[in-house]
Design goal:
By secondary structure, the protein is an alpha/beta fold. It contains 14 helices and 14 strands. Helix 1 crosses helix 7. It is elongated and about 85 Å long.
């Protein structure tokens, strides 16, 4: 009986590079290759078609998983609870899909007895970090491999290899952009976009229509329970359905287009285009409901936590101890984030026009300036005195030592 070969689990998209990687890994390492393909709402080919291609390209096993609901529930919803935006702009489209895929890579490695996990990332992007840190966080005994980075698998070589071995994969079409997409959004980079003076052309966009020529305004009411969208216009939805419906409706209005120069982990700046109509609409609605339901100090601190959470997730630390601790705080803040947010979707903007919540901290009688005002305005004088006391004392000291602020004089004649 022949000795059992080592096995490598490969994150498999069904495209040229990862199809060629199946045979190339085998030739370079002597290992058998098991492919893993995960549906996170990216669209495109059916998983069964991708599975068969992997086998036709030489994989000994091909693992597939429909993870759309898992991705929406366990990854998109925590990102929503955190209002996760890297550099106040990027809703972590790719960053939150990687840990989803990583879980299935590790599951497949255990199931098929693999000792190494491979991915198709380059050596200067963020995803190599997200994959490898994620994998070793869940399975410290596994090793990681990148054919592009570690085995010199170039694009030109991949085309030549596929043609030579008659692999069942298209080699003539070359997209000018590098694209990654899932139900939370779409990321586009490279090509002429690398010149940061070049404006994106209409062919860059798929999830969104041109906001300069929108259809009529679209009013939507999003219902949340404990921070999770549970209904749209009164119709119950799952998190996946909520994202999908708002992708369609907000996308038709050109909402969620993002064009930024981003600070990558490896220290370089990269121009990125994103489309995230559903994600950005939900984040805007969720933020406003938090404005109604969170205590002031809790809300202030949560903004700081959200920034750090977003940085950790961007940097591939989804499974890290600090991120888990921040999750505990964020989850606690969501206890009373329930109610309805009404928005108008139009011309590239999702504008909140109404808020309604049984758990609101907004008190009409305290807020109103009309009859029925229950706020005791006589309390304000003492409050102001105490609030300004330390600054007043410091100002008096400055004056005593000749360092008072020169406010100048104003000629009122």
């Amino acid at each position: 009986m022949s000795e059992h070969k080592d096995r490598v689990v490969l994150a498999y998209s069904g495209g040229l590079d990862t199809s060629v990687a199946i045979g190339w890994i085998g030739e370079q390492t002597g290992a058998e290759v098991v492919t893993v393909s995960v549906d996170v709402g990216q669209g495109g080919e059916d998983l069964e078609v991708i599975r068969q291609r992997a086998l036709d390209c030489g994989a000994v096993e091909a693992y597939i998983a429909d993870a759309r609901d898992e991705f929406a529930n366990e990854y998109c919803m925590p990102a929503l609870a955190a209002n996760g935006l890297y550099m106040d702009a990027y809703p972590l489209v790719s960053a939150i899909s990687r840990p989803t895929i990583v879980r299935h890579l590790v599951t497949a490695a255990r199931q098929f007895g693999a000792t190494t996990v491979a991915h198709g990332c380059t050596g200067k992007g963020n995803d190599q970090v997200r994959f490898e840190v994620g994998i070793t966080s869940l399975a410290p005994d596994l090793t990681c491999l990148s054919p592009v980075r570690d085995l010199a698998l170039t694009r030109d070589f991949a085309i030549s290899y596929a043609n030579k071995h008659n692999l069942p994969i298209e080699t003539t079409h070359h997209n000018p952009f590098s694209i990654d997409q899932n139900v939370w959004g779409r990321a586009i980079e490279t090509g002429y976009l690398e010149d940061i003076w070049n404006a994106p052309t209409k062919d860059v966009y798929t999830y969104t229509d041109d906001p300069a020529y929108p259809p009529l305004p679209d009013e939507v009411v999003i219902t949340f329970e404990a921070g999770i969208p549970v209904a749209i216009d009164g119709r119950k939805v799952t998190p996946l359905e909520a994202i999908q419906e708002l992708n369609r409706r907000a996308g038709a209005q050109g909402i969620g287009r993002i064009d930024i120069v981003e600070d990558r982990m490896v220290g370089i700046k990269s121009r990125e285009i994103y489309e995230a109509p559903g994600a950005m609409t939900l984040i805007e609605a969720h933020r406003e409901l938090e404005n109604v339901t969170l205590d002031r100090e809790q809300a202030r601190f949560k903004r700081r936590v959200s920034d750090r959470w977003s940085e950790l997730v961007y940097e591939g630390q989804w499974f890290s101890p600090l991120k888990n601790s921040l999750d505990a705080f964020i989850n606690d803040t969501q206890r009373y984030v329930s109610g309805d947010i009404r928005m108008t979707l139009h011309g590239g903007r999702a504008t909140v026009t109404g808020r309604r919540s049984d758990t609101s901290l907004y008190d009409f009688n305290l807020a109103t300036y009309d009859e029925g005002d229950s706020f005791d305005q006589s309390s304000a004088r003492g409050f102001i005195e105490i609030t300004g006391l330390t600054t007043k004392l410091a100002a008096a000291r400055d004056v005593a030592f000749g360092r008072g602020v020169d406010v100048g004089t104003t000629n009122l004649s």
